[in-house]
Write a structure and sequence with these properties.
Blueprint (H helix, E strand, L loop, with lengths): L27 H10 L36 H14 L3 H15 L3 H10 L8
């Protein structure tokens, strides 16, 4: 059994496509104005304001490979970033120098009193 040809009996030689109609070109400014009035979003990427200046990334090859994560105040972070920028050294160097300085004054009365005030439970033994 074969399928019937649905085009049997049609005279396709008389078929002619319609000529394309000449449409007037739309004024882009007018379209933009109407779109803006009716709240249509633009496909154009919005003009971005200049972003806040990001802190300069510092990349140093130092041989240090131990990551140390600490929490600090925003002021402490700003202070550290400022020192990194001023001295142009890695954060690890600043930490090492700070630790050396702290070691040299760790038993002074002024530091001991300040630490006792900020951390009253620090001297308790577990």
């Amino acid at each position: 059994m074969s399928r019937a040809n649905p085009l049997d009996g049609l005279n396709l030689e008389e078929f002619q496509p319609k000529a394309p109609e000449a449409k007037p070109k739309a004024d882009r400014d007018e379209i933009g104005r109407i779109a803006k009035e009716n709240g249509f979003p633009s496909r154009q990427a919005p003009i971005e304001k200049p972003a806040e200046e990001r802190p300069r990334q510092h990349y140093f090859r130092t041989g240090r490979n131990k990551q140390i994560n600490i929490k600090g105040s925003p002021e402490c972070d700003e202070h550290l970033q400022r020192l990194v920028g001023e001295l142009n050294v890695p954060k690890g160097v600043i930490l090492e120098e700070a630790l050396k300085a702290l070691e040299s004054i760790k038993f002074t009365a002024e530091l001991t009193e300040r630490l006792d005030r900020e951390f009253p439970n620090r001297r308790k033994q577990g």
